[in-house]
Amino acid sequence: MGKVFRFHKDVDTDQIIASQYLLFPTIDEMKVHTFESLNSDFASQVKPGDFVVADENFGCGSSREQAPSVLKALGVKAVIAKSFARIFYRNAINIGMPVIVSKELYDVVKDGDEMELDLQAGVITVGGYTYSCTKLPAKMQEILDQGGLIASLNQ
């Protein structure tokens, strides 16, 4: 079980991690500024196993890999959205961050809801209801389990 942090549509990579923080030498130094312009308490409130849930086109904007990296570093279990910007989706898979499509979840969850995700079954449970989501193919799950595409290729 994890807590839901809900965000609007068209969240861009600059809203996830603003460009001025890209000058910091490590992801650990950057992560405390995640979503700073949208929710200044996000980095201090999110716990390992929590979820980011968003409307359409999550991760649009620049191709910065730091956007999914700061979410992973904070322990976000998965980002679930109606749709993703293609480059964010690829960067997330590359680093081992699950990015899951669910067309109905955003419209029914609220900030702070407790949620459970079964990646292998493609099922999300929240508030006693279940919703369908992307069911990852076995090969994709294997890549995520190994820490992402880059880690998988290095093995």
Outline type: globular
**Whole-angstrom Rg:** 14 Å
Q: How many strands?
A: 7
What is the first-to-last residue Cα distance?
Answer: 30 Å
The helix count comes to 7
Order of helices and strands: EHHHEHEHEEEEHH
**Major sheet details:** 7 strands, mixed
SSE arrangement:
Elements (H helix, E strand, L loop, with lengths): L1 E6 L5 H4 L10 H4 L11 H4 L5 E4 L11 H8 L4 E4 L4 H10 L3 E3 L12 E5 L4 E4 L2 E4 L5 H8 L3 H6 L1
Parallel strand pairs: 1-2, 2-3, 3-4
Antiparallel strand pairs: 1-5, 5-6, 6-7
Helix pairs in contact: 4-5
Could you characterize the architecture of this molecule?
By secondary structure, the chain is of the alpha/beta class. The protein is 28% helix and 19% strand. It has seven helices and seven strands. It has helices spanning 13-16, 27-30, 42-45, 66-73, 86-95, 138-145, 149-154, and strands spanning 2-7, 51-54, 78-81, 99-101, 114-118, 123-126, 129-132. It has a seven-stranded mixed beta sheet with strand order 4-3-2-1-5-6-7. Helix 4 packs across helix 5 (86-95). The longest helix is centred in the middle third of the chain and has 10 residues, at 86-95. The radius of gyration is 14 Å and the shape is globular. The model has no long low-confidence stretch (mean pLDDT 93).
